[in-house]
């Protein structure tokens, strides 16, 4: 055997082994990319599910707080406010505060901007109600003014809900 034949044989064996190694590495890279893709899709699905749950709860609690304020204003017009009335309003406020705090950590900026507007409006009406209840109103505080401000919150809630639905990919009118 001459040296040329040996070199050709070694190159052939090396090429065969090298080709197998390269094929194996390419296969491993493809599997890794596939795992990353599936993991990314799963993470996106989990993130969307987390946002959806957060949005549902925030929407519900904001509506409950708005309804509780409305009910409390009716009570203030009709009779003296009793402790159970105060407790119901405080519970609605607490539940909303908890959901809003959660949304601050989860919701994207545009949804959070709408939720913040709702939160500020709810807090303002709540402040009016409490000042009226204590008999220490500011100049602009009156039951009717608080009722009008509370009624305007519904428009803010609709805008917040529309932005939440847009973020989740729910088509308008669906």
Put the structure in a nutshell.
With 174 residues, the protein is mainly alpha-helical. The protein is built from four helices and no strands.
Topology:
Elements: H1 3-78, H2 83-106, H3 109-134, H4 143-168
Which keywords apply here?
single chain, 174 residues
Task: Describe what this molecule looks like in 3D.
About 85% of the residues lie in helices and about 0% in strands. By secondary structure, it is mostly helical. The longest helix is centred in the first third of the chain and has 76 residues, at about 5-80. The chain is rod-shaped. The relative contact order is 0.11. The mean pLDDT is about 85.
Strand content: under 5%
Oligomeric composition of the shown chains: single chain
Largest sheet: none
Count every helix, treating DSSP H or I runs of 4 or more residues as helices. Answer: 4
For the residues shown, what is the average pLDDT?
Answer: 87
Please tally the β strands and state the result: 0
Low-confidence stretches: none
Structural class: mainly alpha
Percent helix? over 70%
What gross morphology would you assign? Answer: rod-shaped
Task: Give the helices and strands as they follow along the chain.
Answer: HHHH
Termini, distance in Å? 81 Å
């Amino acid at each position: 055997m001459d040296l040329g034949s040996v070199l050709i044989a070694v190159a052939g064996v090396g090429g065969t082994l090298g080709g197998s190694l390269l094929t194996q590495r390419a296969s491993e890279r493809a599997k890794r990319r596939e795992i990353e893709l599936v993991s990314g899709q799963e993470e996106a699905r989990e993130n969307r599910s987390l946002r959806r749950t957060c949005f549902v709860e925030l929407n519900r609690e904001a509506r409950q707080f708005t309804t509780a304020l409305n009910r409390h204003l009716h009570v203030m017009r009709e009779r003296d406010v009793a402790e159970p009335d105060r407790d119901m309003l405080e519970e609605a406020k607490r539940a909303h505060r908890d959901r809003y705090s959660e949304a601050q950590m989860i919701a994207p900026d545009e949804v959070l901007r709408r939720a913040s507007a709702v939160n500020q409006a709810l807090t303002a009406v709540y402040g009016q109600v409490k000042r009226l209840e204590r008999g220490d109103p500011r100049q602009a505080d009156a039951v009717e003014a608080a009722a009008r401000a509370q009624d305007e919150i519904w428009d803010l809630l609709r805008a917040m809900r529309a932005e939440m639905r847009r973020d989740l990919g729910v088509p308008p009118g669906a």
